[in-house]
Amino acid sequence: MLKAFENGADGVMVMGCLEGNCHFVNGNFRARARLARVSRILETIGIGAERIRMFNLSAGEGARFAAFVSEFAAEVQQLGPSPINVARQEAAKIPTGEIRV
């Protein structure tokens, strides 16, 4: 999840099975625990936990999936670029060899 932000994502969605109904038994619970840890890290480093979200649904809920994607995409768009991307854009404006103090 952190790698996605490192690679330029402004937001990350994690999709999991319905709780208590996962082929991998505890996979969705483990994913939620990981997401909680990543959320705390994002808050600590100033990116914001609101840029990551987990949704649970079954494979047959295409309309619900589309609604989750639309909702989250709108929220991330409203947040604007990730602070990582803003910093990269600012760094790109500095000509090579120039030192800023």
How would you portray this structure in words?
The protein is mainly alpha-helical and 101 residues long. It has one domain. The protein has 4 helices and 2 strands. The chain has helices at 2-6, 27-44, 62-79, 83-92; strands at residues 12-16, 52-56. The mean pLDDT is 88.
Provide a brief overview of the structure.
With 101 residues, the protein is mostly helical. It has one domain (2-92). The protein has 4 helices and 2 strands, in the order αβαβαα.
Give the tags.
single chain, 101 residues, two-stranded parallel sheet, 2 strands
> Major β-sheet, in short?
2 strands, parallel
Structural class: mainly alpha
Rg, Å, rounded: 17 Å
Shape, please?
elongated
Order of helices and strands: HEHEHH
Q: How many structural domains can be distinguished in the coordinates?
A: 1
Task: Name the average pLDDT.
Answer: 88
The low-confidence parts are: none
Please count the helical segments.
4
